[in-house]
Amino acid sequence: MDNTERKPTDQPDVNELQAQCLWLRRQVFSMLVLLVVVSGTLTIYLLRQYRITRADLKAIRPQAEQFIADYQKNTAPKWDEFQRKIAEYGRTHPDFTPIMVKFGLQPTSSAPATATTPKK
Can you give the pLDDT at residue 10? Predict the structure, then answer.
Protein backbone atom coordinates (compact mmCIF):
# COMPACT_ATOMS: atom_id res chain seq x y z
CA MET A 1 0.00 0.00 0.00
CA ASP A 2 0.88 3.58 -0.27
CA ASN A 3 2.84 5.12 2.46
CA THR A 4 1.56 8.61 2.66
CA GLU A 5 3.14 11.00 5.01
CA ARG A 6 0.89 12.29 7.67
CA LYS A 7 1.50 15.80 8.78
CA PRO A 8 0.92 16.40 12.44
CA THR A 9 -2.17 18.50 12.98
CA ASP A 10 -1.39 21.99 14.06
CA GLN A 11 -2.52 22.37 17.60
CA PRO A 12 -3.24 25.90 18.70
CA ASP A 13 -0.88 27.37 21.19
CA VAL A 14 -2.11 27.53 24.80
CA ASN A 15 -1.46 31.27 24.88
CA GLU A 16 -3.58 31.74 21.77
CA LEU A 17 -6.44 29.77 23.34
CA GLN A 18 -6.21 31.84 26.49
CA ALA A 19 -6.29 35.04 24.44
CA GLN A 20 -9.38 33.87 22.55
CA CYS A 21 -11.09 32.90 25.79
CA LEU A 22 -10.28 36.29 27.31
CA TRP A 23 -11.63 38.05 24.18
CA LEU A 24 -14.87 36.04 24.35
CA ARG A 25 -15.23 36.81 28.04
CA ARG A 26 -14.86 40.54 27.32
CA GLN A 27 -17.42 40.32 24.54
CA VAL A 28 -19.96 38.58 26.78
CA PHE A 29 -19.40 41.15 29.52
CA SER A 30 -19.84 44.01 27.03
CA MET A 31 -23.08 42.48 25.75
CA LEU A 32 -24.39 42.08 29.29
CA VAL A 33 -23.62 45.72 30.12
CA LEU A 34 -25.30 46.82 26.90
CA LEU A 35 -28.34 44.67 27.70
CA VAL A 36 -28.65 46.25 31.16
CA VAL A 37 -28.39 49.77 29.71
CA VAL A 38 -30.97 49.14 26.99
CA SER A 39 -33.43 47.41 29.33
CA GLY A 40 -33.04 50.20 31.91
CA THR A 41 -33.68 52.84 29.26
CA LEU A 42 -36.78 51.01 28.04
CA THR A 43 -38.05 50.66 31.62
CA ILE A 44 -37.64 54.38 32.27
CA TYR A 45 -39.40 55.22 29.00
CA LEU A 46 -42.34 52.93 29.77
CA LEU A 47 -42.61 54.33 33.29
CA ARG A 48 -42.79 57.89 31.95
CA GLN A 49 -45.44 56.86 29.40
CA TYR A 50 -47.46 55.21 32.19
CA ARG A 51 -47.36 58.37 34.31
CA ILE A 52 -48.32 60.63 31.40
CA THR A 53 -51.19 58.36 30.36
CA ARG A 54 -52.45 58.08 33.93
CA ALA A 55 -52.48 61.89 34.25
CA ASP A 56 -54.33 62.23 30.92
CA LEU A 57 -56.94 59.69 31.95
CA LYS A 58 -57.41 61.41 35.28
CA ALA A 59 -58.10 64.70 33.47
CA ILE A 60 -60.49 63.15 30.94
CA ARG A 61 -62.44 60.90 33.34
CA PRO A 62 -65.05 63.52 34.47
CA GLN A 63 -65.84 64.44 30.86
CA ALA A 64 -66.13 60.79 29.87
CA GLU A 65 -68.42 60.00 32.81
CA GLN A 66 -70.64 62.94 31.87
CA PHE A 67 -70.72 61.82 28.23
CA ILE A 68 -71.62 58.22 29.20
CA ALA A 69 -74.33 59.39 31.58
CA ASP A 70 -75.80 61.66 28.91
CA TYR A 71 -75.76 58.81 26.39
CA GLN A 72 -77.50 56.43 28.80
CA LYS A 73 -80.08 59.04 29.75
CA ASN A 74 -80.91 60.59 26.36
CA THR A 75 -79.45 58.81 23.35
CA ALA A 76 -79.80 55.13 24.31
CA PRO A 77 -83.60 55.30 24.87
CA LYS A 78 -84.05 57.12 21.56
CA TRP A 79 -81.95 54.52 19.76
CA ASP A 80 -83.90 51.69 21.36
CA GLU A 81 -87.15 53.34 20.31
CA PHE A 82 -85.86 53.75 16.76
CA GLN A 83 -84.87 50.06 16.59
CA ARG A 84 -88.28 49.06 17.91
CA LYS A 85 -90.03 51.16 15.26
CA ILE A 86 -87.83 49.76 12.49
CA ALA A 87 -88.57 46.21 13.67
CA GLU A 88 -92.28 47.00 13.73
CA TYR A 89 -92.07 48.46 10.24
CA GLY A 90 -90.18 45.36 9.06
CA ARG A 91 -92.92 43.10 10.38
CA THR A 92 -95.60 44.99 8.48
CA HIS A 93 -93.58 45.45 5.26
CA PRO A 94 -91.86 42.22 4.15
CA ASP A 95 -90.06 44.04 1.31
CA PHE A 96 -88.02 45.85 3.96
CA THR A 97 -86.64 42.56 5.37
CA PRO A 98 -83.48 42.46 3.15
CA ILE A 99 -82.52 45.92 4.36
CA MET A 100 -83.02 44.89 7.96
CA VAL A 101 -80.90 41.78 7.42
CA LYS A 102 -78.19 43.83 5.72
CA PHE A 103 -77.88 46.19 8.69
CA GLY A 104 -78.42 43.56 11.39
CA LEU A 105 -81.84 44.81 12.49
CA GLN A 106 -83.78 41.59 12.93
CA PRO A 107 -87.49 41.89 13.67
CA THR A 108 -88.47 40.95 17.21
CA SER A 109 -91.14 38.49 16.10
CA SER A 110 -90.79 36.06 13.25
CA ALA A 111 -92.80 37.37 10.33
CA PRO A 112 -93.04 35.41 7.10
CA ALA A 113 -90.37 36.80 4.85
CA THR A 114 -91.40 36.65 1.21
CA ALA A 115 -88.57 38.78 -0.15
CA THR A 116 -85.13 37.33 -0.79
CA THR A 117 -81.94 38.89 0.44
CA PRO A 118 -79.93 40.80 -2.16
CA LYS A 119 -76.76 39.15 -3.44
CA LYS A 120 -73.52 40.90 -2.70
Answer: 67
Measured distance CA(23)–CA(57) in Å, rounded: 51
Give a yes or no: residue 74 inside a domain. yes
CB of 115 closer than 8 Å to CB of 95 = yes
Which residues neighbour 113 within 8 Å (Cβ) at sequence distance 6 or greater? 94, 97
Q: Is residue 115 in a domain?
A: no
Does 110 map to a domain?
no
Handedness of CA 58, 62, 68, 71 (dihedral sign): negative
Range of the domain at 36: 16-102
Give the CA angle between residues 31, 36, 40 to the nearest 5°: 150
- Domain count across the chain: 1
d(CA 118, CA 120): 6
pLDDT digits (tens, 9 = 90+) for 60-82: 999 999 999 999 999 999 999 99
